[in-house]
């Protein structure tokens, strides 16, 4: 069972990377038999990986064709809405942390922030947003808001696929400021100044929205 789960995760990542890179384009049929040969795996982990991508809205099932890559498009307003949802959920997590005296893994958050900095310096959009999404997951999971994270992750993943590079290029001028804000945000979380942390994260989000519009 453990080996199958590992192979399923490998298949999932390889197929997802293929969709992000454009190797598997929108409306392309992903056949189990072809993927089995290409990935050198049995059908079971590939079938599970395809099913998982289907549940996330990245693939859809069509009769007589199997799984098909969806044509995912995010408008500027969609991206803004995703940021607004993230802000609401993050505020809920911070308020919960204040009530229950939750201690966030600041060391790990700072490590992820360092990865963001390295990715920005290298103009690596993929690595930058991977670190962003991991930091969001860490904050949500730390306060046991797993359902919030799962909901947000579906939106973020579609955004990741639909407009990763274009969003990165459009916001590149602002991302160093974003990193500086996050550094301040993590310092305040470390000091358990939760109300101030909410104010900083709200300002960060509003500035992020402006960077997309302008």
TrEMBL record:
Pfam family name, one: GntR
Assigned keywords, A-Z: DNA-binding, Transcription, Transcription regulation
Gene3D superfamilies: Winged helix-like DNA-binding domain superfamily/Winged helix DNA-binding domain
Keyword Cell membrane: no
Keyword Isomerase set for record: no
Segments forming domain HTH gntR-type: 5-72
Single annotated GO MF: DNA-binding transcription factor activity
InterPro entries according to UniProt: Tscrpt_reg_HTH_GntR, WH-like_DNA-bd_sf, WH_DNA-bd_sf
Protein name: HTH gntR-type domain-containing protein
Taxonomic lineage of the native organism: Bacteria, Bacillati, Bacillota, Bacilli, Bacillales
């Amino acid at each position: 069972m453990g080996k199958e789960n590992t192979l399923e995760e490998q298949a999932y990542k390889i197929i997802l990377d293929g969709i992000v890179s454009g190797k598997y384009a929108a409306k392309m049929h992903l056949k189990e038999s072809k993927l089995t040969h290409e990935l050198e795996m049995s059908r079971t982990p590939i079938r599970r990986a395809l099913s998982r991508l289907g549940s996330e809205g990245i693939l859809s099932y069509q009769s007589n064709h199997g799984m098909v890559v969806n044509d995912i498009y995010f408008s500027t307003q969609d991206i803004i809405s995703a940021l607004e949802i993230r802000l609401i959920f993050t505020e809920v997590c911070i308020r919960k942390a204040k009530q229950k005296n939750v201690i966030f893994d600041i060391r790990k958050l700072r490590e992820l922030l360092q990865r963001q900095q390295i990715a920005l310096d290298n103009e690596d959009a993929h690595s930058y947003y991977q670190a962003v999404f991991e930091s969001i997951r860490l904050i949500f999971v730390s306060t046991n808001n797993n359902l919030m994270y799962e909901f947000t992750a579906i939106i973020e993943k579609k955004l990741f696929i639909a407009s990763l590079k274009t969003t990165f290029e459009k916001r590149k001028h602002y991302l160093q400021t974003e990193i500086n804000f996050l550094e301040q945000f993590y310092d305040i979380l470390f000091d358990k100044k939760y109300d101030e942390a909410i104010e900083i994260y709200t300002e960060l989000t509003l500035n992020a929205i402006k960077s997309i519009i302008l």
